[in-house]
Amino acid sequence: MKIDKLVRMVNQIAGFFAHEGPVKAAASTADHLKKFWDPSMRGQIIAAVAAGSATGLEPTALAAVKQLPVPAAN
């Protein structure tokens, strides 16, 4: 999936949880990504953040992605 679409999706999810405040919203967003996103999608967004190519992530969305565990290398 294209990274810009993943960025948009994470931003939307973070926006949904925004009423919880930034710290809780980031945790809720990360939890949502763990529960409902395919591991390959999570891996793509994690790799893009690590490479600095996930431009456009809102601060809460970025904090959420940084809470995700890095996938194990195969």
Number of strands: 0
Number of helices: 4
Rounded to the nearest angstrom, the radius of gyration is 11 Å
Tally the structural domains.
1
Principal-axes geometry comes out as globular
Low-confidence stretches: none
Class derived from helix and strand content = mainly alpha
Distance between the termini: 20 Å
Average pLDDT score: 95
Order of helices and strands: HHHH
Assess the beta-strand content as a share of residues. under 5%
Largest sheet: none
| Helix percentage range | 55-70%
Description:
α1 packs across α4 (59-67). It is built from four helices and no strands. It is globular. It has 74 residues and is mainly alpha-helical. The protein has helices at residues 3-16, 22-36, 39-51, 59-67.
Question: How is the topology of this model organized?
Answer:
Blueprint: H1 3-16, H2 22-36, H3 39-51, H4 59-67
Helix pairs in contact: 1-2, 1-4, 2-4
